[in-house]
Amino acid sequence: MNETENKNAIEILNRIMELELAGVVRYTHYSLMVYGYNRIPIVSWLKGNADESLAHAYKAGEFVTMLGGHPSLKIGPLLETEKHDIGDILRESLDQERSTLEVYYELLKVSEGTSVALEEYAREMILLEEMHLDEVNKMLRKPGDLEPFNE
Q: With contact defined as beta carbons under 8 Å apart, do 146 and 135 qualify?
């Protein structure tokens, strides 16, 4: 990687850190706002997502320092919609995951052909994010619906 590519990669990795840390906050908040009969499995799933987001943020930070950068202390955008219906939470989660996925694709574009490590990392994270998006999409479907959920 040349100096410009390295700088771009660090900026993108810091944005990933910020978005993933926002995911930690969001999923933790959501887990506290679930009520009703299905609370226990949903809270467990949300807490698992918070843990996963923290691991993703940490991994991005490790790449920042590997490239000689300084990990961001910022947190991505947080929006309190005051909507705590499970469907609302899942739709907000879908938006958050899509935003993060876009940034992983940016990292892939910058790293392709310049850094095998970053390229493989970006591909791995894109796979995980796309699988997570699919999981949330399936949760938003009505039983028996085969077509993907579209807002």
A: no
Amino acid at 148: P
Radius of gyration for the chain, computed over Cα atoms and rounded to the nearest angstrom: 17
| Domain 3-139 fold | Ferritin (1.20.1260)
Total length of the chain: 151
What six digits make up the tokens of 97? 């995951």
- Quick one: average pLDDT of 112-139? 95
Residues 85-121 as b or e (16 or more Cβ within 10 Å = b)? ebeebbbbbbebbeebbebbebbbebbeeebeebbeb
Indicate the average pLDDT of the chain: 92
Q: Domain ranges in the chain?
A: 3-139
User: Within 13 Å of residue 139, how many CA atoms lie on the same side as its CB?
Assistant: 19
Among the residues of 36-150, which ranges form H helices?
39-66, 86-111, 116-140
Cβ–Cβ < 8 Å for 90, 33: no
Q: Are 128 and 104 in contact (CB under 8 A)?
A: no
29-58 per-position pLDDT tens digit? 999 999 999 899 999 999 999 999 999 999
Whole-model pTM?
A: 0.91
